[in-house]
Amino acid sequence: MDQTITPYLIVTLGAVLLAILASLFALRLALSSGQAGQGWKEKAADLDRQVGDFDLIFGAYPGLVLVWDETAKPIKFEGNNPWGEPKVYGSPAALASILRFSEKGKSKDLPFRILNSLADHKTISKTDNALTLRGYLTGLRQRGEAFSISISLPEGNLIEAAGRVAGRQVVLWLEDVSIRGEDERSAISRFETSRLTAEQDPKAFIDMMGRAPFPIWRLSNSGQIVWANPAYVAAVGAKDLRDLIKSQIHLDDAAAQQVQEVLQTNEPKEDVRHLIFSGQRRATAVNLFPVNGGVAGMAVDAAEADNLREALTRHIRAHDELLNAMDEGIIIFGADQTVSFHNRALRDLFKLEEGWFKGRPRHSDWLDYLRDKNEIPAQADYHSWRERELSLYTDWPEEMPEELWGLPDGRTLRLVRMRDPHGGISLLFSDMTDAMTLKSQLGTLINVQKATLDKLSEGIAVFGTDGRLKIHNSSFEKMWSLSEEDLKDNPRFGDIVQLCMPLYHQKAFWQDLAGRITDPNPEIRRHVEGEIKRSDDKMLTWLSKPLPDGATLVAWDDVTSARRAEAALIERTQALEEADRMKSEFVGHVSYQLRTPLTTISGYADFLQNGGAGEMSDKQSEYVFAIQSASEDLAKIIDDILDIAAIEANVLDLDLGDVNVFDLLDKALDYVAVKADDTKIALELRCDEDIGVIRADETRLKQVVHNLLGNALRFTKPGGNIELGGQKAPGGGVMIWVKDNGVGIPTERQPQVFQSFESSRGGAGLGLALVQRFVARHGGWVELESAEDQGTHVTCYLPKEASTDGAHPELFGGNA
Question: Which of these, 395, 390, 384, 396, lies nearest to 363 by C-alpha position?
């Protein structure tokens, strides 16, 4: 250290001074014993002069000297006063210089105030140690380690300090370099002026902090407030800075505790909590951080930041929930290439375990993991491919196209890469397997539909909302004599109309059709169809149908041949109907005319059989019986013919009444029993007696049953079986059937058995025809099952109540 009195000289002078003091003390003891001599008085006076000289020497030293005497009281660097009670030597200017950096206090606490204000500031030394004065003094006291350092104060001042051990004494030299070589009186005057300026004009002391609208304050290394700006003074309710420093008012108890934590850890502390300012409770960010010589604090209004933080938190939560609700898999990597987010769809898409993401794996780890699970496209050189993927963090192209990943399991994924402003990368995966399959199927379907349309005989044309042709087939071109050149480049409907006008020149028709194609009004675009006849005598049917996408389908069909065939068919039908009417009239007329001679023949046969002409021989009786049988058969045929004619002429009315189905079947079976016995055919009735009653024409139903039984007897061989049955039908009504095991009906003849005058094996062919017509007249129907050489099964379905259309009108309120 550059000073006029070296530390060693001062130590020597101190030791000499102590020795002199000890001698004086002994001399005084000797004099007090009553034997004080003149010599001792002279020695005492000489020692006093030397002490005065030493005081003058210490007074000339431009610094302070602090001396700890081990014999008096050991130094303890702990407790409320960790510095002990050293003696302080030095000039008044040096004392004033050092005291301006310390806290105010009592004179007896002078060493404590000095050392406490300098103990924790940064130091500069020639060694690599980065200790504070507190650390150096501890090493000097405990291990005798001498030091020479410079203490850097916040205001830019430097205090040079040196420590040595002198015998059983520890000595500390402190010197303010700013007063070196300065007159003592002028230095003291400058210190006082600076102190008054700092107290009376804080803006000159630290103008920027003083103008801050939020509280800023500074504390010493003992936790005492040494300065604060007006905002802090107002926040804690102090009168002024002097009142604040005197009262030591903290923002709250937590702030005082926070100061101690900063002093102990030498680390900044930040906390956001609610404080009351001007009667309002507001969220406040309290920041305390270590500075040279203590702690500085700031309290910033965090209400807006807190609201923004909450809004940001809600936004991030909503953003995450939205991404989690998406079907696409999303994974986000930060600029450090670690996973910052992934959604549920991604885990499901790649079958990933949730626990794998807890360690925030890197992008490269994720690619390796997918490779192990066989969830990436097959790569000939995986490491090169991975490096290209990771190089996107530093070399992002101007355009990043989408990419398709074909996975080994057959799935196809669409990959979209996105770069965020902070350098991270987001990946979005969509499972396109179904879409690709559907696209392929759609392409196939479109090709099939196009080929199908070209094979249609109808002309098809689809027009968009802009009136342009979108789709057409070859039939449309041929039907209107259009060439491929005419229809290229999607011509407008109006242009096509001009090409079609020579074949059909009704402008009103084309204008109406154009409106249906281009007008968005749904009332006008409704489904419409019609028929036109062109100038070439061809007849076309057309329809206009709106499609779901807003387009309009117009279809044309050439029905010229169909219309001509239809006209011919109508003409033929009318001729057949006329012939059938004439046939019915002829048959009815002939049948009626046959009844008179037949009655005469039948009457004379009965007369002869009853002996009216005398007794006949057996041979004669046999001939007469044959005449009677033939007459009866012919009479029945005539009655059937008349019934058929009446039904076809729609003049046969039903006489409805309550019919007991069981009684009807039982009596019908009795009627044919004699004939069945003669032919040795077994008859069986299968019907419950409680089958019930239906509303029907009993006479006609008897005819139905008798005809069915007659057919069965006629075509069943001796020894065969015939079953007559009845049961309730599902949904109401009854089923009546006749089943035999006779010769049956050939399959090719079955469609004609219900037609008049059609018989599979001879006969008039009226039995089943009448059965079908009588049952239909009642509102029922007939079913036939038959196989050749296996028998026939005919079933009649009759409703619970017969249809009133065939009943007498007067029974239902009609006019007679």
Answer: 390
